[in-house]
Design brief:
Elements (H helix, E strand, L loop, with lengths): L2 H9 L5 H14 L5 E2 L2 E5 L5 H5 L9 E5 L5 H8 L4 E5 L3 H13 L8 E3 L17 E7 L7 H9 L1 E15 H11 L9 H11 L5 E14 H12 L10 H12 L2 E2 L2 E16 L2
Parallel strand pairs: 3-4, 3-6, 4-5, 6-7
Antiparallel strand pairs: 1-2, 7-10, 8-10, 9-10
Helix pairs in contact: 1-8, 2-5, 7-10, 9-10
Length: 281
């Protein structure tokens, strides 16, 4: 297949920048707080294993790292713990930036020594920042920066050697699957195809990546109202013309409330993530 085919497929799911920003701002405010340890408000409990995976390719000590879409800052903190000398990051979400800065300060990191930009990756000028071919590792995990071929090329341009991408292959939730099946009479499609398209684009550009598939299970608990708001766009996809009416919403609420305990709904979330590492020749 031609590279243009995979580029078109990769960019089909791309949202406009303001929609992306709104999505991640809402996620920071409404969801991530429920994935934090109640006794230690310093970041998500679950580490996806990407930094540990990278140790077979890079000795972090003394290196320069750029994390694009750093979110709550967990990966930057983990890489800092490994002895990274220069930490830089780009994050478009204002709310994620607030979470990350709080996390860094509470973790004892010196944020004055970090270069953090609250911007869209598309707004970053590599030449103005002197970032072209600068970093020992460019790190991009589950970020909209991976939804565009031009953005991906820009990520590669910022690295002088190593590049790491992480993207979902599948995200399933037991409660969502049951609710979706009861409403639509068919299985919920939890597969994400961006990994396949991204891998093929890299291959056709001459990058032969190392791949690892990681599966993680997590129990997440949300207030019932939040669970309902999370599931509305997943059960009734606007792209499929499934705009819900009042009866549909009432049925969704009824089904979700079947799983309610003390005002909350618990779900088992299973994530399959692709770790992709490659180097510039």
């Amino acid at each position: 297949m031609e590279k243009e085919y995979f580029i078109e497929k990769l960019e089909k799911r791309k949202m406009n920048p303001q929609e992306d920003k709104e999505f991640w701002n809402n996620k920071a405010k409404k969801i991530f707080i429920h994935l934090f340890n109640e006794n230690e408000q310093r970041g998500p409990i679950i580490d996806d294993g990407s930094v540990e995976y990278l140790k077979q390719f890079i000795d972090f000590k003394g290196k320069s790292i750029l994390d694009v879409g750093f979110g709550t800052g967990k990966h930057l903190k983990l890489m800092s713990d490994e002895g990274v000398a220069e930490l830089c990051g780009v994050e478009m979400s204002d709310e994620m930036m607030k979470c990350a800065r709080k996390y860094f300060i509470e973790s004892g990191m010196d944020i004055e020594k970090m270069e953090l930009h609250n911007l869209f990756w598309e707004e970053i000028d590599l030449d103005k920042l002197n970032w072209r071919n600068k970093f020992d590792l460019v790190f991009a995990s589950k970020t909209p920066a991976l939804d565009s071929y031009e953005s991906v090329k820009k990520l590669i341009s910022a690295s002088k050697k190593g590049i790491f991408f992480a993207t979902h292959i599948d995200i399933s939730e037991d409660v969502l699957s049951e609710v979706y099946r009861e409403i639509h009479g068919r299985e919920y499609d939890s597969k994400k195809w961006s990994y396949w398209h991204l891998f093929n684009i890299l291959y056709l550009d001459g990058y032969y990546a190392n791949i690892k598939i990681e599966e993680k299970k997590q129990r997440a608990e949300y207030p019932t109202d939040m669970m309902i708001s999370r599931y509305i766009p997943r059960v009734f996809s606007k792209k499929s013309g499934e705009e819900p009416g009042e009866r549909d919403l009432n049925e969704l609420k009824r089904l979700i409330k079947k799983y309610e305990v003390d005002g909350k709904v618990a779900a088992i979330i299973t994530r399959k993530i692709a770790f992709i590492y490659f180097e510039k020749s």
